[in-house]
Amino acid sequence: MTAPRHEHRLEFEGFTFLCRIVESPAPVTGPLVVVGGMMQDRASWTPYEKLLLGHASLVTVELPGFGAADPLPPEYGYDFLAAALRHLLVELDLSGANLLGTCYGGAIALRCAQRHPAHVSRLLLGAMTGRVPQPYLGMIPRWRAMVAEDRRDELADSLLTTFVQAPDRRIPRHAAVWRMLGHQFRTQSRADLDKASDHNARMLRHAWYEPADLDVPTLVYTGEHDHLTTPAQGRQLARDLRAPFVTLRDADHMFPLEQEAAHADLILRFCTDQPLTGLSSLRSLEYPPGGSPVRPADRAAAV
After folding, report:
1. pLDDT per position as a tens digit, 240-289
2. Can you give the residue range of the structural domain that contains 173?
3. Which residues, given as ranges, of the chain have pLDDT below 70?
4. CA-CA distance, 4 to 8, in Å (whole number)?
5. 206: helix, coil or strand?
6. CA pair distance 26, 248, nearest whole angstrom
7. In this structure, are 128 and 35 located in the same domain?
8. Which of 112, 150, 273, 289 could bridge to 82 as Cys pair (CB 3.0-4.6 Å)?
């Protein structure tokens, strides 16, 4: 599919950052704005273009500290990153945005939706938890030391077992994802490793999750075999946010790579207010007490 593509460079409080917009020729919902994991950049979601552009424009973001954006010292927290994301939504007039945050990006997307709900139509949180697992936090000082001492192979092995464990035959694409991530972890530039190290330090210095009100229709989900941000943790976050919770079949923490078609279908169904029931790609679908959340159309009608 041929679609217009635009690269944008923005500045917020002295930090330069970037985003990539690929326009849908016939959108049926607002643009999907993606804030990915700490080692992802604006090109990481390119495979999703063919799956999404028939329905929505795709906006991939490199906030300060990500990709080719300016480094962001760990003294700056998630409020700052959420404010930078809001600045992007306003500057580029991305009204009616559907905001997707996965893993590390989930904390930023959620904070943005909590603080600036007028700029977010829907919120999707993938592999997100309300509490960073203690074993992960305990590894951060060791990872930062590995980066500082350029112990790249040791770091790559440790990250692999943290994010994807050993190859899992229950997941069809797991071995391929394992090899791809292993190569990525071993070949990252020193600048990228330093940025990831700063992201990890940020997790130790700033509140990852604030139990504040959320007036945006929200979906929380992860892979059924996710051992890092587990289904139990996602389910608790969904209950806190009064949001539905979904697990994707035959996937773990790396579901965006393992189940691209199923993930894209879930995104589009939620963003176009279609029912999520009856999908063979889902292992579970749970709604919060009181039923499904208010949809954007219902919220607008009530105003």
Report:
1. 999 999 999 999 999 999 999 999 999 999 999 999 999 999 999 999 87
2. 135-202
3. 1-2, 290-303
4. 13
5. coil
6. 28
7. yes
8. 112
